[in-house]
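lol ok so funny story. i was supposed to be doing the assay writeup but got distracted and ended up predicting the structure for this chain instead. priorities right. anyway since i did it might as well share w the group, maybe its usefull for someone
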Amino acid sequence: MYSYLVKAANWLSTYTSYFIIAVAVVTYLIPELFTWVHGTTQSSILGFIMLTMGLTLTMQDMKVLAARPWDILIGTCAQYSLMPLIAWTLTIGVCYIGITIPKPVIVGIILVGCCPGGVSSNIMSYLCRGDVAFSVGMTTASTLLAPVVTPLLVLWLAGEQVEVDALGMFLNILIVTLIPVSVGFFANLFWGKNEGFKKAQAVMPAFSVLGLACIVGGVISAVHDKLMTEGIMFFLLVFAVVLCHNSLGYLTGYSVGKLFNFSKAKNRTISIEVGMQNAGLATVLASTFFAVSCPLAVIPCAVSCAWHSISGTILATWFRNRDEKVTPTQP
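and the output, tada:
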């Protein structure tokens, strides 16, 4: 039985994006499937996902934070400056040249941009032969800072669009991210050598992906009727904004690495870390704090959940394939 769970975990880790998309499509056709995922249940699922992240952290990862403060500082500053500002420019900025972006799209993409790095970015960094220790360090640092930095950035950038409960957001992020990550880390610290604990760790990725799928499904169930009313053009607009935000994150992240003369492996890692956000957290925050004032703000967050996994996989594969190309022998 355990071997099947491990195989399922490996399959879900490999095909995360396709699984999330499949769940999203099925839920769109049958919205009743995930109506139970809302409120406290939704927050609890995200807390569990963050717990699984904490279970992967070791004392060696903490030593990386201490041993490479300059790298982590550059990466984290890029994470919390580039993505929020790109989001603002894509939405608020373009309004000044006559392009109108609906308020839900503005709020949603700014929220995504202000969140910490995504957990799956560590996997993508490994796949593209990046600097995995650097990736884990950046994700850990941005997650630890999220309870303070994310609410302040959202208040600053989206405060004119909607009322932002920065204190409530701080407490929510503290509960659903920092505390579960800390619990997972200390559990790994004390029981990491236990064989039963190691077996549990091996199957955690499967439950993490299932949890993310439930969050996306819950969002689609909640906004299904409103999304049907808005129509396909609204969805295409959302996807275009998410695509541009994510792609510019990869590009500017890589540029920062080049600016500071990082190695090729570190350039790839900072590109992926900056471009991939914890859109699951953004989805929960949108559902919790903007459900009344701006209910459709969860749509850019949910689309980002799926797209970041897809684009991250594509980029990691492209990086890896560049290494595997054989230069033709000159005659």
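The CA atoms of residues 67 and 324 lie 31 Å apart. The radius of gyration is 19 Å.
back to the writeup now i swear
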